[in-house]
Each structure stands twice: as structure tokens, then as C-alpha cells.
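Students often ask why inverse folding is considered easier than folding. One informal answer: many sequences map to the same fold, so there is more than one right answer. In these notes we will look at a single instance of the problem. The structure comes first.
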């Protein structure tokens, strides 16, 4: 909780994905997802996507091909509400607004499968400025990720977790060992990205297995 990883939204999406198997009836769960939370529709589909409105209006983007990463989970809880209040960002309306220009550059870099150092330059999290000011330890951890070769190295959502992409599994393992543990809890965790198609196929297979293994009710 408070990590900027959509933990509650992920749980809600998992229940919705399993709902057809649980009630043994096809259900359109998308309207329910948008009512439960802004991030829930995204976790129904997975992959890389542009979220508009509150985040519930989704447009798919090409999947990121660099899949070797490290996730840092510092013992810091960031309030999403407080982070948004501190950011105090106005609505984006000007078509020449720098944020839109960066977004366009990032989307095109993903589309043409540009090298990591090209699209990483436009991979920016505006929450970092206000959250790092309140929690300097997060800025320190981000700089350490970068020094170890992570590109990009960014905070997740409104924080406080951070991630970094590395060129291979060996570099990931070296980073995990460097960060070690905090109070007996691993600070760094290796992760791999799933394409949207793999994400969907694994969910569908799990639901199918649940249906096939369900015992007849008396």
C-alpha cells in the first residue's frame, strides 16, 4: 500500500476477471471496473496503455520490449491524494504543452522499437519533483539505480516504489544484491514485463482451468 503500484486496483481487477468463472455466467465487467477505481480498467487488459480522463479511458500502446527490471520497495508510504494536491497540475489543454510533446515522442519511440536510451529520455514521472522533496530517501535510491546502469530509473505512479530497467538478468541480479535488505525485508525485487497478449492468455487459461476443475454442485 502507498507504493504507487495499484495494489488495491489489481485486487479489484482480479475479482472481476474471475467473476464469470465464479458465477458461471458471462458478464461485462468493464462498467463495474470504472466505478470501482480509475486504475481498475487498466489491470483488466494489461500491457502498455495511455490513460485519459481519470485513467479509465484507455488506448493501447506498443509493449515495451526491455523486460529485465528491478523494483525497489522502500518502507515509505505516500498518500496518492497528498501527492496530487502537492503537484497541483492544471488540466492539459494547449496542444503545444510540453507534457503532450513528451508523450508523443515516447509513443513514437515505442512504436518504432527505438533503443532504450532514446525512449527512456521521455519516460518522465512529474510526481517525482514533489514526492522527492518530501521523501529525500527516494531521490537517493533513484540516483543509486541510475549509477548502477538502470535506464530509465523512475518512481512508480505517485510513489513510493521505484523501478529500473537493466540490459540483462546478470545486471538485475547484481543490483538486487547491492540493495540488500531493510529490517529483514528485501529492498529490491527482480521483475519481468508481460506483453498484453501473454497477460490476457494467462488470465484466460486460469479462468478456463477453474471452470474445468470445478466440481458439479449438488
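Output (designed amino acids):
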Amino acid at each position: 500500500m502507498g507504493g504507487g503500484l495499484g495494489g488495491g486496483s489489481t485486487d479489484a481487477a482480479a475479482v472481476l476477471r474471475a467473476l464469470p468463472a465464479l458465477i458461471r455466467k458471462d458478464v461485462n465487467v468493464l462498467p463495474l471496473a470504472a466505478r470501482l477505481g480509475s486504475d481498475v480498467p487498466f489491470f483488466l487488459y494489461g500491457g502498455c496503455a495511455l490513460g485519459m480522463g481519470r485513467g479509465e479511458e484507455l488506448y493501447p500502446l506498443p509493449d515495451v520490449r526491455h523486460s529485465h527490471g528491478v523494483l525497489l520497495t522502500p518502507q515509505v508510504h505516500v498518500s496518492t491524494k497528498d501527492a496530487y494536491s502537492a503537484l497541483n497540475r492544471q488540466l492539459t489543454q494547449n496542444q503545444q504543452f510540453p507534457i503532450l510533446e513528451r508523450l508523443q515522442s515516447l509513443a513514437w519511440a515505442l512504436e518504432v522499437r527505438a533503443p532504450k536510451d532514446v525512449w527512456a529520455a521521455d519516460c518522465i514521472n512529474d510526481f517525482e519533483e514533489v514526492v522527492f522533496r518530501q521523501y529525500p530517501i527516494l531521490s537517493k535510491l533513484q540516483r543509486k539505480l541510475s549509477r548502477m546502469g538502470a535506464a530509465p530509473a523512475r518512481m512508480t505512479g505517485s510513489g513510493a516504489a521505484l523501478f529500473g530497467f537493466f540490459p540483462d538478468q546478470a545486471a538485475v541480479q547484481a543490483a538486487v544484491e547491492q540493495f540488500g535488505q531493510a529490517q529483514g525485508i528485501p529492498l529490491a525485487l527482480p521483475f519481468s514485463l508481460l506483453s498484453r497478449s501473454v497477460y490476457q492468455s494467462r488470465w484466460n487459461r486460469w479462468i478456463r482451468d477453474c471452470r474445468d476443475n470445478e466440481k458439479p454442485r449438488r
